[in-house]
Amino acid sequence: MIKAVVTGAAGRMGSRIINVLSTSEGISLSGAVERKGHPFVGQDSCGPAGIPQGGVLTAISDDLPDALRTGDVLIDFTSPAASLEHIKTCAELGKSVVIGSTGFSKEQLDVVNQYTGKIPCVLSPNMSVGVNVCFKVLADLAKTLGQDFDVEIVEAHHRLKKDAPSGTAVRMGEVVANALGRNYREVANFHREGITGVRTNKEIGMQTIRGGDIIGEHTVYFIGMGERIELTHRALTRDMFARGAVRAARWVVGRKPGLYDMQDVLGLK
User: Same structural domain for residues 244 and 230?
Assistant: First the structure.
């Protein structure tokens, strides 16, 4: 039985991961962690996870190293800064890690890469199985349609999301750009206002919507002359991310040190 430790245990994602772990086969919760001073520290993790009292019996701790000593893998959906501290602890203790935090800078990703020389890590901007199938389909669509179709990406999330565009939207842009032989950072267009001039053939439009409680919606438009293809993924519950993260946690334990993503987990490469 694989033993998993979950950070952000009382948060939106951490609590859903704990809920999914409670009914998963081959993996179970061994530790739940929150930041120091969090009001839920010391309480049973079943409360935030919506599990009947006594269904988990794992108290939320603020001591990650202590929690990891009895675990095999850390599942981390927090923030880039927190995740860097968490992967450092995993590297020191030789524990596998799954990271679903988004908004990493290039410099932060370079730090992650340093630690993955010691431990296996699955890092993905979106753990949904459906979204990762979309990544695969997008690459195939872009290669087949070629340079004659304009590409626009629109993403929508809840009003509390802190990064924009979403990590998933950025990855979609990267996938399309790579398939078309472009550099995403050079062709991404994040803002249009006023007299913008004629759209270039190379640019990939990136538009962001924030409001209410939208869990996550992404649409990629391939727009040609007289025809249009739209590929849309809508998240209806955070449990899809949680299930993907648990699947990644089962997969990563026992792997060689290195940086992996959900495409590796799902065998799509």
Answer: no
Specify the number of domains making up the chain. 2
CA 19 to CA 40: how far, in whole Å?
16
Angle at 159 between CA 242 and CA 37, to 5 degrees: 65
Q: Are 22 and 51 in contact (CB under 8 A)?
A: yes
- The pLDDT of residue 193 is 94
Catalytic residue numbers read 157, 161
CB-facing half-sphere around the CA of 49: CA atoms within 13 A: 31
Residues 45 and 92 in one domain: yes
In the numeric block, which tokens belong to residue 20? 């999914």
Distance between alpha carbon 51 and the CA centroid of its chain, in Å?
A: 24
Given a cut of 70, the residues of the chain with pLDDT beneath it are 53-57
Structure tokens given for 38: 């969090």
Is 174 found in the same domain as 156?
yes
Coil, strand or helix: which one is 204? strand
Residue 54's pLDDT is: 59
CB 104 within 8 A of CB 80: yes
Which residues contact residue 127 at a Cβ distance below 8 angstroms, ignoring those fewer than 6 apart? 98, 100, 241, 242, 243, 244, 245, 247, 248, 262
Residue with tokens 């809508």: 234
pTM given for the model: 0.83
Q: Which residues pair with 218 in a beta bridge?
A: 155, 233
pLDDT digits (tens, 9 = 90+) for 122-149: 999 889 999 999 999 999 999 999 999 9
Asked if omega into 80 is within 30° of 0 (cis), the reply is no
